[in-house]
Amino acid sequence: MPFGFTLRSIDPSGARCGLIETDHGPVETPAFMPVGTQGTVKTLSARDLEEIGAAMILSNTYHLYLRPGEKLIEEAGGIHRFMGWKGPVLTDSGGFQVLSLADLNRIGDEGVEFKSHLDGSTHFLTPERVVDIQLSIGSDVMMVLDECAEYPCDRGRAEKAVERTTLWATRSLAARGARVTRGEYERVLFGIVQGSLYPDLRERSARELVALDFPGYAIGGLSVGEPKKDTFDTAARTANLLPADKPRYLMGVGHPEDIVEAVARGIDLFDCVVPTRNARNGCVFTSRGKLVVRNAAYARDGAPLDPECRCEVCRTYSRAYIRHLFNAGEILGPRLATYHSLYFYLHLLSEMRQVIREGRFSRWREGFYRAYSPIGSEYNGSV
Amino acid sequence: MPFGFTLRSIDPSGARCGLIETDHGPVETPAFMPVGTQGTVKTLSARDLEEIGAAMILSNTYHLYLRPGEKLIEEAGGIHRFMGWKGPVLTDSGGFQVLSLADLNRIGDEGVEFKSHLDGSTHFLTPERVVDIQLSIGSDVMMVLDECAEYPCDRGRAEKAVERTTLWATRSLAARGARVTRGEYERVLFGIVQGSLYPDLRERSARELVALDFPGYAIGGLSVGEPKKDTFDTAARTANLLPADKPRYLMGVGHPEDIVEAVARGIDLFDCVVPTRNARNGCVFTSRGKLVVRNAAYARDGAPLDPECRCEVCRTYSRAYIRHLFNAGEILGPRLATYHSLYFYLHLLSEMRQVIREGRFSRWREGFYRAYSPIGSEYNGSV
Fold first, then answer.
1. pLDDT tens across A288-342, in order?
2. Whether B111 contacts B146, CB under 8 Å
3. Domains and CATH numbers, chain B
4. pTM of the model
5. Which residues contact B346 (CB under 8 A, 6 or more apart)?
6. Which positions 65-84 of A are in contact with B (Cβ < 8 Å)?
7. Could you give the ipTM of this predicted complex?
8. Nearest in space to B324 (alpha carbons), one of B298, B304, B344
9. How far does A86 lie from chain B, in Å, by closest CA?
10. Is there a contact between A324 and B38 if contact means CB atoms under 8 Å apart?
């Protein structure tokens, strides 16, 4: 079954419901992809991911390229067999990590040179090489190498990043095309719209990439420190510049309320380390908001992390126990917190798909905020 | 159903097969108890433990007393509800940890004073208090406070430890009796035989404790640095001094081959951190012996940890993947290794019960050693 996207319903709010099809299975959208940076969603097994209802996961090209190396993964039969995950996988291009993690990097039209954050070795990646690395890794959805401008960013820099992103997108397509069937399944390439917060640059970037006819589009360069209002304004404007019949992926977003807002603006696909990274630090998301379970306040609290949640962790363990695990430095703490928080995210997306199908997203969103305290106003945990 | 032990069959070798019954379920013996020091078998969930076939687990009174405190566990409904584990739990007395972990300790006939390794606070534990702490924790099987002599140990010291162990066992029984029903289930108290490597002191200790008629007996003071031959000679001699109709628990033993040897000498119950602690360091046990999966030699090895093993980890993941997880510092590495190694131990015990019932333990033991390379001769991993 070739890669496809079917737009199934549009809520009066503009929120969309659709279906991505891949050779590793379907992904109902809007969807959240748990992040498995190094070929593992930290602390969770592949079976855990199935259990909590993950459809597609994201892994990081930069990390896998450096360790264990894409050739090793290819020899192991690809990322799915390597990590025991049967569903679809999306890999980013590594561009963002090169700029944010590598010790030193030099970017030019040809590509990007950087020193590994692991051992200081020097590497040079071109757009073509980045596609080939992802083909070796074996992801279902590959991302083109792009230049993600930092925030704030002057117009000249943002414009150069747009030009280079289009140049690299063109070269990526020229190298292997937008759809590659290798082994037993098809892999597709998504373009990434840049342009910082400049509406005309976003428009130019979108126009140039849409002309290249990618099977899907990401909105990059957001969630890099700009005010939230700018994130959503730019995401909404950019989404409107993209073809309605292609999936729209807002990279690196976000907190639960950010995802609700972006869904309202016509976004289909998300990834973010927020639920997993927070969980490992003893902070989980619940239907009432953020809960810092490692706090002493929960030492004798017999309630589950989220009394509204039906996940295995909430059906089995108390806040008191999970707080004890964090307090005692036990690995099971981060594991249980991660399991719950990802379940919460995936369940939230599933709920949104339902209400979009039923045309009552705006109403649902009001109800969501009545229960949920956004970041900044931590839920005090009382049941 | 009151605590009980039924001896079901004795193999010509002397290996025994039996059944411990508790209000939290049965334990077929010989049995291995995974160690959940701080109320969690490190990295594993309660459901994992059920899946791999754990019947009874051990938790540490010393650790739980210091953190989160036995009263907190009691308020949470006891250790079973606290950690989500439905099967029986045995707690040690904490005596061994006081002597090995606490920063400073002073032992006298009245009890033991020590400073917490966590915060330096001073504590004083008596035999009576240790029983009460375990009653609050809510374990099914409690251990008396004993004095575990170090190795090597002169005769005078060993004799004093035997005398004090009997004195404390007597006081423990006087305080609450050997069987206490509290809440909805019965808890029983086991005695611990000491005597270092001195046959006459072991005999005296066993005689004095057997006279007190405990529902079960542990053999303590072994696996503390003495030669293996002494461990097994002393275990075998001591086992013979204990009533045949009571379970015999050899504390802190051991490697797979140690357990095979101890089973051959009539031991029924085991606990040890060896499988779990090794697993967290990237070293697992397999039907061929120890395998250090974190070694670079396994970087491209597509075989499961143990090709003979049918556990979830061996059915899903390769050595190459698990090696990558350890190499990348991923928590899933210790988790998968722990799951496999405990499965291996529990499966080994299950296999031994089977061959004991069929009267062919000695034959089986020969076959075990043909495949298995004991510690010191690491299995090279080739399939």
1. 999 999 999 999 999 999 999 999 999 999 999 999 999 999 999 999 999 999 9
2. no
3. 30-272 (3.20.20.105), 282-371 (no CATH)
4. 0.97
5. B32, B34, B52, B53, B54
6. 67-68, 72, 75-77, 82-84
7. 0.97
8. B298
9. 11
10. yes
